[in-house]
Task: inverse folding
């Protein structure tokens, strides 16, 4: 199977916040696996897309989930008329063809899936395919990237230290207000005044983290709200639909958020 379908042909918009681009390029130059840590909606996936475009490498993305098995990553034999045929999984495809493989929210996957990635994240750079009795050496351009949100981790859902220490880590946080306003304007099309208002709302919601909220409003949420505003939705309704309602189901917390937002509006 060709990986050309996984090439990003147009430059994704990404606004650097710190030295994350230089860090990633250095890691890729030495084929060091990369771990992205940060809250949801803070730009981790967009960053990987941007770097894949910048490095001119195909990007194969896997959204991890609790039912994902090692076979889902490596591949399996499937029945076809009169025979069984091996089908590469996404990790195997990336390993064969030198793509960047991005495992998004890796802690959501079953812990036994890490047996697939461990041999790829040390000096061996190989993938054992037990069902094929094959050891596949990684293409020179292959790189593995994982991401997760440390805010949601628990004793049950966390990466083992033996896994974490195989990666270099880049920490993602929400951008400073001026940069976040720039991003919201660029991504949603709102004007500077509305972008400033949305960022102020996000700041107030983030101050409630740990007081009933696991996370404050993400940059992604602000972009959604901005797009609703551009479409003509009233500000209060746009913010309620894009920020308040998705963030919590608790009636008291919704009321507290709406009070904080009303002060901005």
Result:
């Amino acid at each position: 199977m060709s990986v050309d379908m996984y090439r990003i042909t147009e430059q994704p918009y990404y606004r650097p916040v710190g030295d994350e681009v230089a860090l990633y390029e250095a890691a890729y130059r030495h084929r060091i696996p990369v771990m992205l840590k940060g809250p949801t909606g803070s730009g981790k996936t967009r960053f990987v897309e941007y770097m894949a475009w910048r490095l001119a490498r195909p990007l194969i993305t896997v959204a991890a989930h609790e039912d994902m098995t090692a076979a889902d990553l490596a591949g399996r034999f499937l029945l076809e008329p009169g025979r069984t045929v091996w089908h590469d999984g996404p990790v195997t495809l990336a390993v064969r063809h030198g793509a960047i493989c991005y495992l998004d929210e890796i802690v959501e996957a079953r812990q036994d899936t890490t047996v697939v990635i461990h041999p790829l994240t040390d000096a061996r750079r190989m993938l054992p395919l037990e069902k094929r009795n094959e050891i596949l050496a990684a293409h020179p351009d292959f790189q593995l990237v994982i991401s997760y949100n440390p805010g949601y981790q628990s004793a049950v859902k966390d990466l083992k230290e033996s896994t974490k220490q195989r990666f270099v880590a880049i920490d993602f946080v929400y951008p400073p207000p001026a940069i976040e306003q720039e991003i919201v304007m660029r991504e949603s099309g709102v004007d500077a005044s509305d972008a400033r208002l949305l960022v102020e709302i996000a700041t107030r919601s983030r101050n409630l983290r740990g007081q009933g909220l696991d996370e404050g409003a993400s940059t992604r949420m602000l972009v959604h709200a901005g797009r609703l505003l551009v479409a003509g939705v009233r500000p209060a309704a746009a913010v309620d639909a894009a920020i308040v309602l998705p963030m919590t189901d608790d009636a008291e917390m919704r009321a507290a958020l709406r009070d904080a937002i009303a002060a901005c509006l």
